[in-house]
Design a protein that fits this description.
Helix content is 56%, strand content 14%. The model has no long low-confidence stretch (mean pLDDT 83). A hairpin with a 6-residue loop joins strand 2 and strand 3 (108-112). The radius of gyration is 25 Å and the shape is rod-shaped. Strands 1-2-3 form a 3-stranded antiparallel sheet, covered by helices on one side. It is built from 2 helices and 3 strands. The longest helix is centred in the first third of the chain and has 59 residues, at 3-61. It has helices at residues 3-61, 81-84; strands at 87-91, 96-101, 108-112. By secondary structure, it is an alpha+beta fold.
Length: 113
């Protein structure tokens, strides 16, 4: 490539590089947002499953369990034992409270019965 052709092509190379960087940044940002949304969805689905399991436990035993260890979770929506660790459960056998902190907003999601 001659010197003058190289000088004319340089701005196109710079613009192309900038566009590639912007596309990569956008893809990374979208991936991160999807990951956060999936984690939040798994967390809230687990709370709902806990509510259902607690009500079934109470119907069978006449009281709520002292801990969530008494329940068998299926971890809907992609959760796992690390998701379960995000739930704070308290019970006096007659009533219960589940609290979990949503990472995205920092808000607490609370369920009490």
């Amino acid at each position: 490539m001659s010197s003058s052709n190289w000088k004319r092509a340089l701005p196109f190379g710079i613009v192309g590089s900038v566009i590639c960087v912007m596309l990569l940044w956008s893809a990374a940002s979208t991936f991160n947002e999807a990951r956060v949304a999936a984690k939040m969805s798994a967390q809230l689905a687990l709370v709902k499953e806990a509510e259902n399991l607690l009500e079934a436990y109470r119907a069978e035993h006449g009281h709520y369990p002292k801990s969530l260890d008494s329940l068998t979770f299926s971890f809907p929506d992609g959760g796992d034992s690390s998701t379960l660790a995000l739930l704070k459960y308290e019970s006096d056998s007659e009533k219960y409270s589940i609290v979990t902190k949503i990472d995205v907003s920092g808000e607490e999601y609370r369920v009490s019965r």
